[in-house]
Design a protein that fits this description.
The protein is mainly beta. It contains 1 helix and 12 strands; from the N terminus they run βββββββββββαβ.
Length: 118
Amino acid sequence: MVKFEQASIKIQSMHTKTIEITRVEQYANKARVIRIYINGVKVGFLRDGETKSFEVPATNHEIYAKIDWCKTRPLKIDAAKNETVQLELGSNLTRKNMYKALYYTFFKPADFLYLKKR
């Protein structure tokens, strides 16, 4: 479990929720890490096939993932205290459409990766 930190101050709250993010195993970006941001603050990273949990205050949050200059569209999360929100992270590139890599990279960087509720 990774504690959410903002401006080097740990947020201690009795009302927390857990955000669990699973990065699906994929051929695209297999050897690369994808960084996770909550409310604009980098909180960690995920490797291919990895799952991590982030404990955050039970308030509204905006989450996105980033690799180089490409990132997911921001996902707004509002969850009750003690709730676990499960998210899936992956690339829109598959073995069948690897030829679209340059297209996503230069023309649709917000669609290169996806982040969605499971």
